[in-house]
Each structure stands twice: as C-alpha cells, then as structure tokens.
Amino acid sequence: LQFILKLFKYSNYFVKKNKPDIVIASSTYPMDIWPAYNIAKKSGATLIFELHDVWPLSLIEAGGLSKIHPFVVISAIAEKSVYKLSDKIISMLPAIHEHCRYNNYDLSKVTVIPNGIDIKEWVTPDASLIPTNIKKIIDLAKMNKQRVLCYTGAHGLPNDLDNLLDAAKNLKTESVIFLLIGNGNHKNKLLKRVETEIIDNVYMFESIPKKTIPSILDSCHIAFIGAKNQPLYRFGISPNKIMDYMMSGTPIISAINAGNDPVKDAGCGISVIPQDSLMLSEAIKSLCALSDEELSKMGLAGQAYAIENYAYHNLASQFLSVLENKKKL
Question: Can you give the pLDDT at residue 126?
Fold first, then answer.
C-alpha cells in the first residue's frame, strides 16, 4: 500500500523527469496497474502490464483465503483493471488463455513471454569445478557403469522429493544412483528418510554455487524436476530449473501436472504424473536403458529448444516486437 500510494504521490515527478513513452508495470500482485495507468495517462505513454501470477485465484487456491476476503475482492477489481486499462499484457504463464476466455478478458492484448536464460552463463563445462565429494560419487558410479540422476534446487514440500525417494527405493537393485543437491525446509526430513529407510542409492549434498551447476549436470545422465499437484499450474509453468537442465543437454524426467509441458514439447525427456512413484520408477528405468548416444540426442534436443524459446536475446526481441506493434497501432 505504501508503494502504490507513493507512486501516485510522485507521479508528476516521474512524468516530468523521465518523459516516458512506455510504462511497464511488473509485479506479483495486480494493484500496481492503478498508479502505472496514472503515470502512463499523464505522459501519453503505452502501458504494458507483466503478469506473473493469476490473482485473486492465487490467494484463494494457494493461500486459502475466502472469495469475500477484502484483499481478494480488491485483487479481483485490480485484475479486471489490468485487462481493461493495459494496452498490452505480457504473461509469463503459457496457458493463461483459458483464464482469459473464462472471464471474457480481451485475449488480443495478451502475449506469452516466459522466464528465460542467459546463454553466456552456460560456458564449457569444467569437471574441476565440481566439489570433490560430489565428483567422487559421480566417478565411482560411472566406474560401476551406473547411471546418475541429479536434482539441483530447493528441498521443500512443493518440490515433491519424497516421490523421488520412493522411486529410489523401488530401484535399489537397478544400476542408477540419485544425487540431490540443495537446501530447503524439508531437507532434514528427507535426510532422515534416507537414513532410517536405508535408501543407500541416494546421496544428498548442500547447495553449491550456481556457476558449478552446468559442470555437474554435464556429468550426470538424467535430471529430475517435480512438484506436488497444484491447481494454479493449469495456467502453465516456465521454471528456470527446466531451462537449466535443457541448456546442460541433460535428458529430463518431469513430474509436474501443468497446463503446458516443455519437456514433451522439446522431446528432451519423459513426463509423468506427480506423486506416482511407480510411474516415476518406470520412467527412470526407461531412460537408464538408453544408450549414451540416445541420451545425448535427447539432451541436445532440449538444448536447442531452450536456445530458441528461452534465450534472453530472443525473448527481448519478442518483447520489443510487442512494443513496436503497439506503436504502429
């Protein structure tokens, strides 16, 4: 509220100082549309709204608030304002269209531009960057002709890593090991499970610098991403983790139920339903059975898809194209 009120308070200053011909409102919540519209109107500028999440549905479905909660009501009014007042809307949610149709919002204003990646970060992998304790496990697995499945990222309940541990238990007699790298509020419980249930094909490590991730993924055969069922995912996902996996050229197993499926679109892995360890186990076995050449071909398909669809320079061109089309109108 303070931020919105200050935007109104200093709107004349912003207009006079910057003389903008484009105003972009980029925020998780939709209420920024009002001060942004005020600034755009005063300066005669094009108004672009960047849609990160679907409000007020996020408050209701993920936050558990009532439809008549005052904050939900205000958010609903703000959402309607977004579609009414914006000249163009950039959505990071690939399947937002059904929501727009359901609410009779103007779809002609909406362009989907997802999250992206900086290709410059993906330098030639260097095995010497991999922490010694992790490299030792990977090297030993390869010496024993085992496949290496890797998960890098947050260890929270939404990431559904319990499902991955269940699959690991199912595959204890298979030639595959599981690396889980990262931290989160559910990690201690996962560690306890590994210890008490003697899931001895799972190795868990602390978070590592982001610059090390490409080298680790390059040393692994399969990458995993999962999420518990979440109704809001029906509007689509564009997680950076999938993009990282794709850029590394690592085949992916995705256990996410969403309105889009980038892994399937890219042909770079296998998608399974969440929270089904038997199906996940079969998917892992299926990829482990592939030859190195087949895995490489699958991984390179993901890399090519990421460069074409997620590279910042391509996304920037799409964004500029939206602005140019608006100016022509």
Answer: 87
Q: What percent of the chain has pLDDT over 70?
A: 99
Q: Give the helix/strand (H/E) hosting 269.
A: strand 269-271
Task: Please check whether residue 309 is in contact with residue 317, taking contact to mean a CB–CB distance below 8 angstroms.
Answer: no
Task: Give pLDDT tens digits for 228-281.
Answer: 999 999 999 988 999 999 999 999 999 999 999 999 999 999 999 999 999 999
pTM for the predicted model, two decimal places: 0.89
Cα-Cα-Cα-Cα dihedral sign, residues 6, 12, 18, 21 = positive
Strand pairing class (110-112; 269-271): unpaired
Give the C-alpha distances (Å, rounded to integers) separating 298 from 29, 178, 286. 38, 20, 13
Does 329 have pLDDT greater than 50? no
Tell me if the bond preceding 251 is cis, omega within 30° of 0: no
- For residue 89, what are the contacts with CB-CB under 8 A and spacing of at least 6? 48, 49, 50, 51, 82, 83, 109, 110, 111
In this structure, what is the dihedral angle of CA atoms 203, 206, 208, 213, given to the nearest 10 degrees? 30
**Contact (CB, 8 A) for 197 and 170:** no
